[in-house]
Design goal:
CATH architecture of the largest domain: Orthogonal Bundle
Order of helices and strands: HHEHHEEH
CATH topology of the largest domain: Arc Repressor Mutant, subunit A
CATH class of the largest domain: Mainly Alpha
Number of strands: 3
Strand content: 5-15%
Shape: elongated
Length: 176
């Protein structure tokens, strides 16, 4: 396989970075998972079935199929063939090649350590901002639950007082 297949990949130029950001989150997750599989296999391609892709990318099997097709259309991925004859069912699947240019562009933020750190820190900042929003929502929910419990206790005490008053008024004197 030719590793120098020209294709737009993340961060090879400002245009390519924009294309990468334009990909849907699920497409990026599938591409990253397949790229890791390809790296782990040490070859120029990887074999993956829909159940494995969906589990590795954290998407449904149907979404994995849709994302793989979109990535093929966008030029990030190439379907090389199929491995349906493997005696182990779990190892059967489609053979994909993740198309990564062999040469590294000067505009690539990963060509230097500083660029990689800035990219990773940017992701960490976004993740911590999401966590802060989640924590704030949890605090609001806890406050609302506390208010509901306090209101329930006030209502219960009012009802108990009302029962006492009604019970006292309905007492009949014993006739002798």
């Amino acid at each position: 396989m030719n590793r120098r297949t020209p294709c737009p990949m993340p961060h090879t130029s400002s245009t390519d970075a924009a294309q990468w950001k334009a990909l849907k989150r699920t497409d990026r997750a599938v591409l990253i998972h397949l790229s890791r599989l390809q790296s782990a296999s040490g070859g120029e391609s990887c074999t993956a079935g829909l159940p494995g892709i969906s589990a590795g990318a954290g998407v449904s099997q149907r979404q994995a199929q849709i994302s793989a097709n979109r990535l093929i259309e966008a030029g990030y991925l190439r379907r090389v063939g199929y491995d349906l004859g493997n005696p182990m069912r779990a190892l059967r699947g489609t053979i994909y090649e993740v198309l990564i240019p062999a040469d590294v562009s000067e505009d690539n933020p990963f060509s230097d350590v500083q660029g990689a750190i800035e990219y990773l820190l940017g992701n960490q900042v976004r993740s911590s901002a999401r966590m802060e929003r989640i924590e704030m929502a949890q605090e609001r929910a806890t406050g609302q639950i506390s208010e509901l419990v306090a209101g329930q206790r006030r209502l219960q005490s009012v009802l108990e007082e009302a029962i006492k008053v009604v019970g006292a008024q309905n007492t009949c004197p014993v006739v002798r």
